[in-house]
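Feature request disguised as a bug: please show the residue count (761) next to TonB-dependent receptor in the output. Example input:
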Amino acid sequence: MAQAADSVQKNSVNAKTTAAVGGKATAARAGGTTVNTGINAAGGAEQLRVTGARSYGGLIRNETAAKSVSTISHDYIAKQAPASNALALVAMSPGANVSMGDPFGVSDESDINVRGLNQQEIGFTFEGAPMNDPDDYTPNSSEWVDSENMDNVQLQQGAPSIETPTTTSSGGTMAVRMRGPKHTRGGEFDVSYGTHQMNRQFIRYDSGDIANTGLRAFASFSDLTSRAWRGPGRNNRWHVDYKLVKEWGDGNYISLSGSYNNEHTAWYSTPTLSDWNKYGLKNNPDDMQGKYSFGEANYYKSYATSWTDYFLSAPSHFKLARNLTLDVTPYYYHGSGNYPFGVTTISTTGPYYNGTAANNSPLAGNNYSEDGQIAAIQNWIGVEGYTGFNSTLHYKVANHDLVFGYWYGYTDMHVDEPLSGLDASGNSTGYLRQQDGTTLNEWSYHTITQTNALYIGDTMHFLNRKLTLDVGFKEVMAARNGTLNQPGPQYNANYYSAQPLPRMSVSYKFTPNIMVFGNVTTSYRLPLGSAFYNQYDSPWDGGLYQTANKKLHDEYSVSEEVGARYHDKWITASLTLFNYNFSHHQINEYIGNVPYYQDAGSMTTRGFDGELALHPWHHITPYGSVEYLYARQDSNITMDGVTYQTAGKMATSAPRWMAAAGLQYDDGRFFGSVSLKYVDKEYGTFMNDEQISGHKQVDMMIGARAPDIGFLKAPSLRLNVINLADHHYLSGVYNTGPVAGTAQYYTAPNFACLGTFSTGF
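Example output, currently without the count:
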């Protein structure tokens, strides 16, 4: 099959130039003909298709699943600003409320809410492996893969697939797939330069088919540097992606995907509403400060983050018999680095506390001090890893598609918060230590979580496959064991849960163009990792800063969707009505830079999503999406011993309306797009006494392709413009608070543009 596909590919289209020229040159030159071979977006063996396929700009496709799904294809991704992370790429999709801390997606200081649920309630996967941080569940999507190597990004706004290996999917799932290596030898290169001294280079090489071995591979490298768009500091990122595929027989394959990422990024302040109204983008006293003065809490170097990680996944597919196949995905991730959170001061004379234990001896070494105080950076040092495998057996008999699966996951999270002394110029002099060598540490804990999940499902087809009924059941068992590595009354922290997750969906195709569907799905999320531990006011005194939560519960959700889809050669559209009921709804906040877990009780969410796109008319492709959302808190919330009357209040970070509209143009030589996203007002506090205004943003892209020039294949130039009108606004809630004045917000990046030269070779 691979050889046949390669023959057609060589004769029909020049596939090795597709990504380099902005996604659609091949289809445009071939009159709409597309050829897809290798590994598909779902990880299975992709079938050869040579058809008059219709393109809708890469923002929507004809979905067949009985649930809401939005898929962003490589056609669209290839035209966005290089370095865009997965969150930025789905911003036009219905239900997605994205707040970016950086205009180009370089920083992980970003957030996505889907149907009013934050990113810590969304399950993220990359190449079939879970990617939520094991401690606070954030996705850190800028670290996964270069955008040039993304095949697609899929957002499932509601019901997660039964095979999804996550314990954080009560708010939906997002899956990112890497492009496979090409069958023809060649490469791609692009270089970008733009505002904020943005400078990036990317190169990829594909081996093509290696003799008759069934092997092919690619490897890529990118280097990025930029200045912080607001305040002092710089961003630097080095990234490597690679993938190896071995194919044989009737659809069998083994693949190995990997990435390495090393980044050092600036941090941006998250103002309160009152500070934003007073200062806007300029002279906010909470902004990062470029000059150091003794004890300056917001000195920019005391917030600069650094992180290194590497990732491996091996999605593989085996045909065991005519109607029996096995999919197995083993994976491994390791990451480590520092997310410091500002400067503090500490006495030169002590006493110093480690947990509840006091030590009156002076600090070791010759530490710089003023007026009996030492200035120090508060570090957050994390070493995290997760490994496991997900295996699924598919068996087809009569009108049944049966699935049997098992997922095992193991995560290891170690956190330390040592203090680094500073000299008179603000340079680190190393960790502060006592005479016995003990590091002054604000917090230290170690958590291991093991997950076992068994699932079974049956997809039944009736009435000549017009009617499809899908039933499934998943049992997830999790064991979390940890230690607080500081003296005090708490040492062990243990938590065990077992959650039954039944599901059912039904769909009916009235005609090949009209489909209706409905589903009922259950999902859940484990509590935040840091909620298990005491935190003492170390090293200043031995008092409790945070008490370990003794009444932990899994967040559990029951969601229902009813929807309809329509598609023909000119249009594709969908409309979905949804309803959620949450119990033990979890809110994760930060109090004094400390992650804080809050069980908010019950919540109800309902509304509708819609999206529509037209086939290109005179090379113009329109797209639009809309969402109406009603998210209500059903319980009162108690924080720090105070009960707030929040029952009946609107949920935070849940805009009532969102809408997006875009136009794309591509005639094979010239291409461009303009897009508008509108987000309604959002409450930032539980009591609904503080809100940020609704906002809109316009982005634009223009580009042109040239014929081959020597060894350069379809070279192109494009310009991506972010926030064209330079609107200044707060784009989302960074940290929810109970009452006005306690919440913090993301600041939307101002106008930015990036020019890119791309070519194949």
